[in-house]
Design brief:
InterPro entries: Endoribo_LPSP/chorism_mut-like, RutC-like_sf. The protein is built from 3 helices and 7 strands. It has 156 residues and is of the alpha+beta class. A hairpin with a 2-residue loop joins strand 3 and strand 4. The model has no long low-confidence stretch (mean pLDDT 96). The chain has one domain: RutC-like (60s Ribosomal Protein L30, Chain: A, 2-Layer Sandwich). The strands form 2 sheets. A 5-stranded mixed sheet has the order 1-2-7-5-6, covered by helices on one side.
């Protein structure tokens, strides 16, 4: 295994803090044909949530953006565990980001940009993806941000 993506992560000074698998009977990643989809990933480091609350109340856009980046890295951690090697990823296809939001908060895209930017930094052009950034009333365990990632896999 060439570990090109793992080296890119190290070169960027990033760390995969997971994997943080979901509870039974859920799985962290579903692989079907040449597509892999993660379950929602919260901003966890060493098993602890790093960003709790609601954007527009007690969490700033920058804190939310940083949390989204952690979520994206956690998505890569579960993908690495499921695939055995991140170099099996041909491209990032889509990201769905959920932002726990105060009723008058409307900057969800700016928050989820943290996940999109980190995936682009790691995968380059293959990291460009479609995306949805949704505001929600609450997320599991009080997390401020949750990310799901869908990737296309290389043949073989």
């Amino acid at each position: 295994m060439s570990q090109v993506i793992r080296q890119r992560i190290a070169d960027l000074g990033l760390v995969l803090h997971g994997p943080h698998p979901p509870h039974d009977p859920l799985v962290a990643v579903v692989i079907f044909e040449r597509t892999a989809r993660t379950s929602g990933q919260l901003p966890r480091i060493d098993g602890q949530l790093t960003c709790i609350g609601h954007l527009g109340n007690d969490v700033t856009v920058e804190e939310g953006r940083e949390a989204a980046a952690v979520c994206a890295l956690n998505a890569l951690a579960v993908l690495e565990e499921a695939l055995g090697d991140l170099d099996r990823i041909e491209r990032v296809m889509s990201v769905t980001g959920y932002v726990a939001s105060a009723p008058d908060f409307h900057e969800q895209p700016a928050v989820i940009d943290g996940a999109s930017a980190i995936l682009f930094d790691i995968f380059g052009e293959a990291g460009r993806h479609s995306r949805s950034a949704l505001g929600v009333a609450a997320l599991p365990r009080g997390g401020a941000v949750e990310i799901e990632v869908v990737v296309a896999l290389k043949n073989g």
